[in-house]
Design a protein that fits this description.
Helices cover about 25% and strands about 40% of the residues. It has about 110 residues and is an alpha+beta fold. The longest helix is centred in the first third of the chain and has 15 residues, at about 25-40.
């Protein structure tokens, strides 16, 4: 399950970030794949990793290594947070284990 998902849809790139309640890196990748179904269906299979090593291999696609193209970053966290733009206060949610950010070139 994901929360606080942000999507920036530009003419040539798509940036998605948010939090995942998955317990493993493989689970995080599958959460990203579920998001991609509605946003960029052609990338769903990229994130349907078959295990831990596939997920780790996908994480090797870094901004530096991709020369500005595709990348995935995942970071362990102790909960989800975001600033509520209406109240200017921070919202917290427990039970989310990973923050993720990915950029896909269309």
């Amino acid at each position: 399950m994901t929360t606080f998902v942000g999507i920036i849809d530009r003419p040539e790139t798509l940036i998605i970030d948010g939090y995942s309640s998955a317990k493993t890196l493989n689970g995080v990748m599958h959460d990203i794949a579920r998001l991609m179904k509605n946003i960029c269906p052609c990338e769903v299979q990229t994130f349907m990793t078959k295990g831990k090593q596939d997920a780790i291999d996908l994480l090797n696609c870094t901004p530096k290594g991709s020369e500005g193209g595709f990348f995935v970053e995942v970071e362990e966290v102790f909960g989800a947070s975001q600033i509520n733009k209406d109240t200017d206060e921070i919202e917290y949610k427990d039970g989310y284990n990973y923050y993720f950010c990915t950029r896909v070139v269309k």
